[in-house]
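Supplementary material to the annual report.
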Amino acid sequence: MKLTWRKRSQPLEVKGCLAEGAAGHELRRKLLQRGGLQAVECDDLVVALGEEPPWVDGAVFLGRKGNLYLPTLWEPELPISWIVAGLTKLGEPPWLLLPDGRVLGMSEAWVL
Amino acid sequence: MISTLIEQCSQGLVERRPVVEAIVLAAVAREHVLLIGPPGTAKSEAARRVARGLGGNYFEYLLGKFSEPSELFGPTDLRKLKDGVLETATDGMLPEAEVAFLDEVFAGSTAILNTLLTLLNERVYRRGNTRLKCPLRVCVGASNSLPEGESLAAFADRFLVRCFLHPVSDSLLEEMLSGGREKVELSAGDLNVLDELSTQAESVDLKEVQPILAQAIRKLRREGINLSDRRAVRAQNLIAAAAAISGREKAGPEDLWPLILAVPTEDDQKLARRCLRELLSQTDNPALHHLAEDASAALQVRARMLTEEGEKALTPPVDSLRVEGVLRDIDANFSETDLPAELAQLRERLKSSLS
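Predicted assembly:
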C-alpha cells in the first residue's frame, strides 16, 4: 500500500536535516567542520540530527513525531502509531520516513 | 510609530519582545498585564522601558507583607487633617500614575489590594474625602507565581493579559550577555499617540469577529479551559486594540489571537493554542508579530518575524552562523511555493551573503 502525504498546517520544530548529492557533500563537509552533531549516511544521502543542524541549500529539514523523523512541512495521512507499529518489525527506532517512501533507521547515528 | 517604540524598548532584551508587545497591546486596550516568572527575568526592565517609551507619569513599587497603603497611594494630608478633613496627598503616587509597575503584586495587605482592586477596575481612588479619577492607562503586575486561593483570585482576575516568562534559552545566552551590557537610549514618548490608538480601538467594529470569537470560546470550554465570561467579554478589548494597532477599523479573524493572552494559566494557554490553531491560522499583525506568533504560530506573522531577523542578520558584521539560522528557519517553515515574495528575496540575499 502506498502511503500518501499532505502538507502540515503547522510545520514541526527542527530536529535535523537531510541532503543528497552535491547538497549532501556540502552538509557532510559542514558536519565534519563543526563536529559534535549526530549523523547518518546512506549512499549519497546525509542526515544530521539536532535542533540546530547546518543549513545547506536544497536540504530538507526534519521534525520528530514520537519515534519518527519526518519533513517539517509534510505529514503522512495515516496515524503515526500505525506506521510505527509497521516499522517496529524492521529494526530499532527511531526511523526517518520520507514522502518518496524511503525509510532509514536512525538508531545507529554516530557523531561525525 | 508603535513598531519603532516596541523595537527600541526590546533592544538588548533577549526573548522579551513578546512581553513588551503585550504591555503595549494592553495599554492600547486599557487593560492590565500580569507577568508571571522567576526573579531576574527582566519583568521590571520591560515594564520600565515601555513606560518610558509610552511617556506619561510612571509609578513603580515592590510590595511586601508590611507595605503600608500610604507607600502606594500617598500619605495623609496633615494640613487638611488639622481642619478635620481626611485627604490623601497623591502627588507622584499611584493614583496619579499613567503607567504603573507593581512587583510582587499579590504580597500586599488586604487594605492595599482592596483599594487597588477599585483603582484597577474603575480607575478611581477613594479614601476618606479623597475621590480621585485616576489617569492610569496600564498597570503591570509581576509575581513569581499565580496566587492560590479564592481571596486573591478576584484581584488577579483584574489583570486580563497574562504573560509567563522563563529564563533565556541556552542557545541565546551569548546574545543575552552582550545585550545586557548595551546602553539603551530611550527617548520619552508622547502619551497622546497611545491615547489616539485607544480611541481608535474603542470604535473598532467587532461584528465580523464576534461569531468566530464565540466559536473559539465554545472550543475552549469543550477542552475544559477555564475562561470566565468576564474575561471572554474583555478579551474583545484586546482584539479591538490589535485591529487598531494594525490600522484596521474592523476586526477580523486575523485579530482573534489576543484571546490566548486572556486565558489565565500557562498550561491552559498552551492547550488553547493547540485547540484554536485552525481558527488562528489567519493571524496577522505588523507591529505585534512576535506576540501574535507566540499566540498563534501562524505563518504570516512567522514570515514577518523571519524577515525582521534576516534583515538584522545581514547588518554588518555578518555572522554566518546567524545567517544560516535564519535560512534554516525559512526552509523549515515554508515550501518554495508558499514562500512570500519578500521572504523569497531576502532568502536570496542571505544565501549570497554566505558565498
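Residues 2-167 of chain B form a domain with the Rossmann fold fold (CATH 3.40.50.300).
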